[in-house]
Amino acid sequence: MLIAALRRVLLSVITLVMLAVFIFIATEIMPGDALDVSLSADEIAMIPPERLAKMKQDLGLDRPAHERLLAFLNGAITLDFGKTLISKTPVSAIIGYPLRNSLILAGAVLLIAIPLALAIGIAAAFWKGRAVDHLVSTGSIIGYSIPEFVIGTILVMLFAVAWPIFPATITASTRDPALTLLASSPLAVATVLIGSIAYLARLLRTGMVDALASDFVERLRLTGIPEWRIVFLHALPAAVVPSLTALALYAASLVSGIVVVELVFAYPGLGQELVRGVTRREVHVVQAIALCSAAVVVALNLLADLAILMLDPRTRRA
Amino acid sequence: MVNVTRRNVLLAGLSGPAFLAALDSELIGSASAQTQQPKRGGTLVYAQCSGNRRGGDASNTRHPYFMVDLITRSAYNTLTWVDEGLNVVNELATKVVPADDKLNVWEITVREGVKFHDGREVMAKDWASSFELHRRRNFASQQIKSTEVTGTHSLRFFLDAGNSEFPFVLAEYDNVVMPANEDFEKIGMTGIGTGPFKIVEADPQRRMVLDRFDGYWKKDQPWLDRLEVINREGQMESAINGFRSRQFDAVLNIDPRLVRQLSAEPDTDVVPASSGDQAVIILPKHPGSPFLDKRIRQALAFAIDREAIVRIVYGGAKFGWMGNDSHMAGTDPMFAPRPVKRDVAKAKALLAEAGHPNGITLPTLYYAPQWPEMSRYFQVIQETVKEAGITLPIEERPNDGYLRFRQGDPDVTKGNWHKFAYTAVGPRNPGISLFRMRGANNESGYWSGPAHDRYMELYRTAMVTADAAKRKAIYAEMQQLCFEEAPALLPAGRNNVLIKRPNVRGLNNHPQHWSITWDGVWKA
């Protein structure tokens, strides 16, 4: 098992290095640079070209690509992504709180979504083919298929504009405590929650249906074990293990991928910071966020793999 | 605001007397609202949607250069201010006069008794210290060679060349007064200014909270106790939703396409400024360009239906204005309206004279959606010039990398020519605005020739002409040259628009977004 685990860790490290190079190339081919976008049209029209060239040089924008790649890789290893190009602020100071906020949002969503999805998924699997199952299946397809920006907009129209009980847009500060942030973000949480419950419930239902139809469950039933014990103590673990990787990837996508929801509600998370970084061509910020997001995906995937290795002996031979 | 809607009338019972009563109450209500005295207190929360790519971080977000929006006048003051009619007036200066005929030395007397937020009185040395920073960092202040404190409340500015419009430079939103510091890098970091509000909370690029400054130099002002600024840069929908859900009392920099819809919404005042930014159509003059021929440039200028742009794109003269092919804003007191209207026959004649009797197909005109209305803007141009036999292909390019794309390389031998393309320009003082048509600037399409030389000669003369009336005549001649030569086209512009609740009073919109003031704003 140790060798299998080490193999997966090594694979994760290689994946991260490759991703780092890919991220660098992606930021390299972005048109324009931080100086271009930091200057107003007035400034561009009034500043002499030779002074613009000097400013570019001062910002290090004329350094060769290989030098910058090495600096980025070195920064990735030491977790020091340098400073922003224009304001010379440490990148860690720029992305620290947004990263925390994205984790808070994702954490809150998962905390609510997982138990609910478990309950819904189990119920749908247990009563497979009956009204509850049809309701869950249809509801989850709808919930998962509707884009989050549509759900968000509908919720805003209903609960912020027509019936103004929640804020339409989040005005809390980036550094506000977690509870303050969450208290001002009910519609953002609800928006992500709807899709999350739909996805996870569907995932668990499929696993539970397979587990409940399996031979070992049939044998357990024949031994006279109560149905609730079969469902919760035997079928559920068997259903969860194959879903772990998908669950881990979903959790990672919540941290790094809810850009649209962040924009709809102006939630001060990593997605907003990424969009701002791209807009302002602050490549160090973009690289750091992209690499952090990639690292979260790789790390959660690795954790899921390791968990499966522990829980399912068959995988240790692979 | 009189708001007699169909809904109001129906609610009033659809009867004639009831309608009149409703109308009466609206009118009386409106009139009484106008005559109400300003009231102290309250918090005003507003969202701003314009791009500010210099937004700061935790270390510098209180600094005027990096505030969450560009309206530094909430917390700071400048020596002069450009009013809503684009006239320069004194703010913390009581006198701004040239000290010599060449207009490169200026004497300033600053207002006495003005206090910083920390209670200390503002002295001339604070101004001198602040301008040590500005002349290094603010593009418009780079002309300042040095400053000299001549008294406790007076100082001199030495410029690298004469500038008759220097008082406008002192009104630039960056050029505020901050407590003196020998290390200019540290100036302004504390956020201490002299403005009507003092910064109490600042979340970089997101939010700023300012409280009333009791020691403000304007008597009784400001009226509000608190001002909260929420940055919704590029997030117009989020800002409007916040307004509709009553989180915001006002939203600045409204998308012109939303004006009609918002005008019909209850409890919403749509407030246009007298003008705002305008579009520049760069006519490239590189080898092989059809725009080397002045007649083709002129034909295009005559063929564009400017009134149609204002009507269709902006919804009429309340929200848009016609340009005169110079960089001057329509409400600038020095603006000279285009002397003739659209003339399709003249355009056709010019094309025929240039060897295109059956019309001409121009190169592709590129634009980026820097403003949301741009697609419609260029579609109107494309359609209206058809009448003169001009086929105008248009193509939208992404904002990303657009600047480099349109600028190409000024060195024409490299073949990467500048493009027939759009850019935007804001309303600045006549000196800056008219200087933008210089041949060395991409916006003029690298204009050259005797007319250009004459234009620059006039510009140099204007810069050392102290008399405003004489300067106006010179500027008029320069604008006439733009009309005759059409080095670039600036057909029409937008008026800045904000929305607010009717109970927000004294909030005037401004052609320069950054020059809005909050001193006199109050809530009924």
Instruction: Kindly provide the name of the CATH class of the largest domain in chain A.
Output: Mainly Alpha
The quaternary organization reads as heterodimer
Low-confidence stretches of chain A: none
Low-confidence stretches of chain B: 1-33
Strand arrangement, major sheet of chain B: 8-9-10-1-11-22-12
Structural class category of chain A: mainly alpha
* Order of helical and strand elements of chain A: HHHHHHHHHHHHHHH
Query: Over the alpha carbons, how many angstroms does the gyration radius of chain A reach?
Result: 24 Å
What is the count of β-strands of chain A?
Answer: 0
Q: Could you say what the CATH topology of the largest domain in chain A is called?
A: MetI-like fold
Taking the sheet with the most strands of chain A, its summary is: none
What is the overall pLDDT average of chain B?
91
Q: Largest sheet of chain B, described in full?
A: 7 strands, mixed
Given helix and strand content, the structural type of chain B is alpha+beta
Structure characterization notes:
The complex is a heterodimer of chains A (318) and B (524). By secondary structure, chain A is mostly helical. Chain A has 2 domains: 2-77, no CATH class; 96-279, MetI-like (MetI-like fold), CATH 1.10.3720. Chain A is 77% helix and 0% strand. Chain A has helices at 2-28, 34-38, 41-46, 49-58, 65-78, 91-126, 131-145, 148-162, 178-183, 186-212, 215-222, 227-257, 259-265, 270-279, 283-311. In chain A, helix 6 (91-126) runs antiparallel to helix 7 (131-145), helix 6 (91-126) packs parallel to helix 15 (283-311) and helix 13 crosses helix 14. With 524 residues, chain B is α+β, with helices and mostly antiparallel strands. Chain B is built from 14 helices and 24 strands. Chain B has helices at residues 6-11, 16-35, 124-137, 166-169, 236-244, 259-263, 294-303, 306-314, 344-353, 374-386, 402-407, 430-435, 450-463, 468-485, and strands at residues 43-48, 80-82, 88-90, 93-98, 105-110, 144-151, 154-159, 197-203, 207-212, 226-231, 250-252, 269-272, 278-282, 320-322, 360-361, 365-367, 390-391, 394-396, 421-425, 488-489, 492-494, 497-500, 504-505, 522-523. In chain B, the strands form 8 sheets. In chain B, strands 8-9-10-1-11-22-12 form a 7-stranded mixed β-sheet. A 4-stranded antiparallel β-sheet of chain B has the order 4-5-7-6, with helices on one face. In chain B, a hairpin with a 6-residue loop joins strand 4 (93-98) and strand 5. The radius of gyration of chain B is 25 Å and the shape is globular. At the A-B interface, helix 2, helix 3, helix 8 and helix 13 of A face helix 5, helix 11 and strand 19 of B.
